[in-house]
User: What shape does this take?
Amino acid sequence: MGFRQRVSTTELWPPHRAREVRDAWKMVRNRIRRLDIGSVLSRGDGHSDSHGSRDRHSGDAMYTCESRTVTWDGSSAIDLTGTWAGDDQGVYYLRQLGDQVWWLGMSGLGEPLVHRGTDWTNVYLGTLSGDTVTGTYADVPQGKILDKGPVVMKLTPTSDGGISLVRTDPVLETGFGGKIFTPCRLG
Assistant: This one.
């Protein structure tokens, strides 16, 4: 079988299993389409499609993130899952699972969407203990920078009653540029 030859699912699995695989793939593909941040994309004529998503192929679409508030009393459990804007013109997609905090960070905030992640894209795994997240980031080849190192962020109260994540490790020890993350909503 050649590399480019298409293989049907029924050649790999029995018919009932092949149907399950096809259905699962369709579900994943549809979820990816819905998560393709269509709400931040604009068409040149300002119109949206029937789902409220805007045409993602427009060259003038902007990568933006509107401020939102995440509250925390300083002692109860908190879930940091969500979108955060960095002062390094990046957007960070955080996911908290128990005390583990993961993120995908991408450059390009405030720039045309086609530039998202082209300067840098990184991933992070950290541990939340009290009001501090301690972990390590690594740039990935999506962007031009390939660096890695420790990043320590502290949950810090803001004047609007919410929190931000403020970097507390010495900035010079790593190439990571973000110092403050604020919760936001892609828009």
About this structure: The chain has a mean pLDDT of 78.
